[in-house]
Amino acid sequence: MNVSVSIKKNIIYLYACALLFVLPACDKDGSINVFSVEQDVELGKQVSTEIEANPAGYPLLPETGRNGQNEKAYQYIRAITSKILNSGQVAYKEEFAWQVKIVQDDKVLNAFCTPGGYIYVYTGLIKYLDAEDQLAGVMGHEIAHADKRHTTDNLTKQYGIQLLLDVVLGSNQNVATEIAKGLANLSYSRAAEREADDASVVYLCPTGYKSDGAAGFFEKIQNEGEGAPVPEFLSTHPNPDNRIESIKQKAQEEGCNTSPLANTQYQTFKGYLP
């Protein structure tokens, strides 16, 4: 590398680090995050690139093919995403990417969202759920983790500011790859999970969806008892009782609709999937 280029890069790096410590970013909800929104976006872009490059770990459903079935599946799930984003409650609706992809793995009951709004939903979760309201609730929860910037907070604790800044600057692909591999099972604090649960209700409230749809996911697991296929991301929250209660309580406090959305094509949507 040219010496002057190397020196310039180091100056930019040190300046960026100084900004992180001296001028932490204030989120729209008033909370503090050491990364700027722009850095969240860039981090998400880097991680999503790694996910796209790892078909063995993340077998993404192609957006075209199978006589139009894939296109119909993506059209359906993106319509759900749009309803949530257009609720008027998502703080970074305009700033983040909010791209949704389907991961073709029926054994995994999961969904996750990178910093900057790249959403991934597993076919296992879609097929496990019974209604569009439930999927919208889970997606709202995952969107909240990005919108409330929980993911960046968590990754900062796990990797430190310096390594994450390396990823943002595109100078540490190994860490970007490692983050991509582990993001699906990233563990959040109970406070962050509670905030995401509450936000899911708030996001769904103006949409016509059953606002406590996320509770339906936990109720299904609870009703199936010991034989339920508990997702790995619930390993720190094995008993969903409190979450069901708090989600429903939040819906009641907000005065939101709690009746199931009528006349959906959710079963048809599941039929679009391989």
UniProtKB/TrEMBL annotation:
A molecular function GO annotation: metal ion binding
GO cellular component, one term: membrane
Protein's UniProt keywords contain Transmembrane: no
One GO BP annotation of this record: proteolysis involved in protein catabolic process
Superkingdom of source: Bacteria
Keywords: Hydrolase, Metal-binding, Metalloprotease, Protease, Signal, Zinc
Signal peptide coordinates: 1-27
Cofactor detail note: Binds 1 zinc ion per subunit.
Cofactor dependency: Zn(2+)
Keyword GTP-binding in annotation: no
Domain Peptidase M48: 75-249
Pfam families: Peptidase_M48 (PF01435)
Family membership noted in the UniProt record: Belongs to the peptidase M48 family.
Record PANTHER family: METALLOENDOPEPTIDASE OMA1, METALLOENDOPEPTIDASE OMA1, MITOCHONDRIAL
Descriptive protein name: M48 family metalloprotease
Origin species: Rhodocytophaga rosea
